[in-house]
Amino acid sequence: MRALLLASAVCLPFAATPASAQTLRFMTGPQGGVWVPLAGALKNLWEQNIPGLTFQNLPGAGIANVRGLDEGRAEIGFGNTISTVDGVQGNPPFPRPTTQVCNLASLYPQYFQVVALADANIRTAADLRGRGVAIQPRGNTAEVVTQHWLRAHGMSYSDIRASFQASYNDAVSMLRDGQAQVFTLGTAIPASSVMDLGSARRITILDLRDSIEPMRRINPGYAGVTIPANTYPGQTQDVTTIGYATHLIIRCDQPEERVFRMVELIHRNLQDLANVNRDLARTTPREMAADIGVPMHPGAARYFRSIGAM
After folding, report:
1. 19 or 218, which is more confident
2. Which residues pair with 80 in a beta bridge?
3. Residue 54, SS3 per DSSP
4. Is it the case that residue 91 has pLDDT exceeding 70?
5. Which of 224, 228, 246, 291 has the most CB atoms within 10 Å of its CB?
6. DSSP states of 151-204
7. In which band, very low, low, confident or very high, does the pLDDT at 214 lie, cut at 50, 70 and 90?
8. Which candidate, 206, 293, 216, 275, places its Cα nearest to that of 42?
9. Helix or strand or coil: residue 150?
10. Is 63 helix (H, G, I), strand (E, B) or coil?
11. What is the pLDDT of residues 282-298, one digit of tens each?
12. Taking a C-beta distance cutoff of 8 angstroms, is the pair 75, 252 a contact?
């Protein structure tokens, strides 16, 4: 990380910024996911290169972050494309369309993962009936995806013993202690929480290839993605699961020059940021600028146009 800060500090000139210091609230994700360390790297990158700007990183989750920005409780956050689009359109669980949530940049794919204790002999959604399942709090993106996955197989929470946990680490503790047999999460791979569980117990990563089409009928933003073999302890074969994308969202009222600079720094330092999440090493400017159905902030759009990505 020190190398990232030093490299980013010298690779780009400082942009003109207001003399008075300002703190932006940055909504991240649950402990044990990738958003927390990546937010720390972005905070350091921006603070090192944008004089007078500091960031306060706060816990969050995909849906909560969209609401937080729209309601003025934060200025920037991570989002999941499937849920941010629901926010813009006012689809459930959002009570109304958002008006202050703009896209900053798409970053990398997210993987919905269903992790089971190997000795529980769980291979399909139907095998979850009557079992203990640790899930994110209601309204978080992975919780909504879990509902969709169960619905795609004719099930609901009434068919399982659902336990809503504040963090992935808490979910792992439940499985370690035998209080649950499965937990669901939506994050990049490898997830540190799954690695921690795999170091203590034998685990199975469920293959969800049969869920893709029924889930796309619920939300067309879902797609099939592959967790390569040996991503996790004991996972000897590729696993197909449900994917969507992580992106950065920012309040639409943020100054254009500031946002231009923030996006520029991300783009110029993708390879260093990949030390936190290796998927970023494969992210291209055109992917960052892709139209995902969320309004692009004018500052971000101006940067992407300037490099020919839009």
Report:
1. 218
2. 246
3. strand
4. yes
5. 246
6. HHTT--GGGSEEEE-SSHHHHHHHHHTTS-SEEEEEE-SS-HHHHHHHHHS-EE
7. very high
8. 275
9. helix
10. helix
11. 899 999 998 888 999 99
12. no
* CA dist., res. 184 & res. 60, Å (int): 17
Taking CA atoms, 69 is separated from 35, 238, 269, 271, in Å, by 16, 37, 25, 28
Q: How far apart are CA 50 and CA 14, in angstroms?
A: 6
Rounded Cα distance between 57 and 129, Å, is: 38
Tell me 257's DSSP state: H
| Cα atoms in the 13 Å half-sphere on the side-chain side of 33 | 29
Residue 13: is its pLDDT beyond 70?
no
Calculate the alpha carbon distances from 180 to 154, 170, 200, 241, 283 in Å. Answer: 22, 11, 15, 21, 36
Amino acid at 233: P
Look at the chain and count its residues.
Answer: 310
Q: What is the mean pLDDT of residues 60-84?
A: 93
* Per-residue confidence (pLDDT) for residue 20, from 0 to 100: 61
Distance separating alpha carbons of residues 204 and 76, to the nearest angstrom: 35
For tokens 């390569």, the residue is 228
CB 252 within 8 A of CB 295: yes
